[in-house]
Amino acid sequence: QVQLLESGGGLVQSGGSLRLSCAASGKISAFETMDWYRQYPGTERKFVATATKADRAFYADSVKGRFAISRDTAKNTVYLQMNSLSPEDTDVYYCHANVWGKGTLVTVSS
Asked: Closest Cα partner for 38 from 14, 60, 56?
């Protein structure tokens, strides 16, 4: 079974940017979609973005125009470029492609 490993989280000031990476142990070309979700402890996991095999992308309204998802098939990695971050974006971000990664924490300070 494929495993997903997220990285790139950290502490950033409001208005800043981060790029998250999700490296898969297998070929991501096998997945019709690859997704990012976010979750604050004690709350439900929420959809952030998805990238399809056909290179289409879909976003939650809260991140449209600020976040961009992309897939690199050669590197078996999916990225989430996050710009104009605000404290409301503070969450653990999870990668998903039939299975879940362990998540990476993003903290945005005001």
From this structure: 60
